[in-house]
Design goal:
It is built from 12 helices and 3 strands; from the N terminus they run βαααβαααβαααααα. By secondary structure, it is an all-alpha fold. It has a single domain, classed as Rhodopsin 7-helix transmembrane proteins (Rhopdopsin 7-helix transmembrane proteins, Up-down Bundle), CATH 1.20.1070.10. Helix 3 runs antiparallel to helix 11 and helix 9 packs antiparallel against helix 10.
């Protein structure tokens, strides 16, 4: 009964339960993954920011995706690396709430940003003559502001509803903090939280995904109706890139939700699926866009070749 009514500010996480032989490989994997995410996303951000030719609506919206990926991965990896190194499974409640908040900001933000990108491609391909008139700098800034504002309002309300409830447990049955795991610490009626959580899922899945699927359906129809093969090929390539990122996020998110509901699933598999949403999209998104988007690929190659030649002049050996 003592643990049931524990209101300590220190929480205990279930953790990964690593053996002594697994600590070093797990530390190397987590550190390398975080370094790759930081490097790839920062390269994408700097490429867009430093090249004026990329200051176009599509790339200005795209710029928010690596920023969002860095928020999600930074919310997870430092805590995971610290846990692996120190073998401690405790965390301050305030730090746990902060981690959960930013992880949810990342998840919802990814859907909103991909929706905004789908809207931009819809205007560009289906209404090309009106594109410059519609997608002005002011309109782009309005879209980006609304993406982050809606994200912060929806998640702010989610955590306001959470923090108003009394907490009487201290065990987080997950490898990191999120809203469902924090709700398990509450000893009160969580009906309002559950309803609002379902409402948030409905907004992201029905509205966001519905808009994405509708816009890309219209884009595909417009592409197949186009008589210019080069325009059609470029449009399809751009859409394929966006859809790859979208499907990657959705599949991992869906697997994560399902893993929470399946009691018979292996705990290790559940933990892996839980962290995969915060590992694979942030790692693959900048690589996918860097490889598939010609303008970005050319600028990245030019940047690194320039740096390579510069270093050779200084150190010619």
């Amino acid at each position: 009964m003592g643990d049931l009514y524990n209101t300590s500010s220190v929480l205990t996480l279930q953790g990964f339960n690593l053996s002594s032989q697994s600590v070093i490989p797990a530390f190397l994997f987590a550190t390398l993954s975080y370094m790759i995410i930081l490097f790839c996303n920062l390269v994408l951000i700097l490429t867009i920011v430093l090249n004026k030719c990329l200051h176009q609506p599509m790339y200005m919206i795209l710029l928010n995706l690596p920023i969002n990926d860095l928020i999600g991965s930074t919310a997870l990896f430092p805590q995971v690396i610290k846990e692996i190194l120190s073998d401690t499974k405790t965390m301050q409640h305030s730090a746990c709430v902060a981690q959960a908040f930013f992880i949810h900001i990342y998840g919802l933000g990814a859907v909103f940003i991909l929706t905004a990108m789908a809207y931009d491609r819809y205007i560009a391909i289906c209404l090309p003559l009106k594109y410059n008139a519609i997608m002005t700098n002011a309109h782009i800034m309005k879209i980006i502001t609304l993406v982050w504002l809606f994200n912060l309002i929806l998640m702010g309300m989610l955590f306001f509803l959470l923090l108003r409830l009394p907490r009487c447990r201290s065990l987080i049955t997950h490898t990191y903090c999120d809203n469902p795991s924090l709700l398990t610490l509450v000893c009160a009626n969580t009906a309002i939280n559950n309803i609002y959580g379902l409402f948030t899922v409905a907004v992201t899945q029905v509205v966001g995904n519905g808009m994405i699927l509708y816009t890309y359906l219209q884009i595909l129809i417009a592409c197949f109706r186009s008589k210019r093969s080069d325009t059609r090929a470029k449009a399809l390539q751009t859409c394929a890139t966006h859809l790859t990122v979208f499907l990657l996020l959705e599949c991992l998110g869906l697997f994560t939700i399902i893993s929470y509901r399946l009691r018979g699933i292996s705990p290790h598999l559940r933990k892996f699926i839980g962290v995969s949403t915060l590992i694979f999209p942030p790692t693959l998104n900048p690589i996918i866009y860097g490889l598939k988007t010609q303008e970005i690929r050319e600028k990245v190659i030019y940047f690194f070749s320039k740096k390579y030649l510069f270093s050779k002049k200084i150190f010619p050996f």
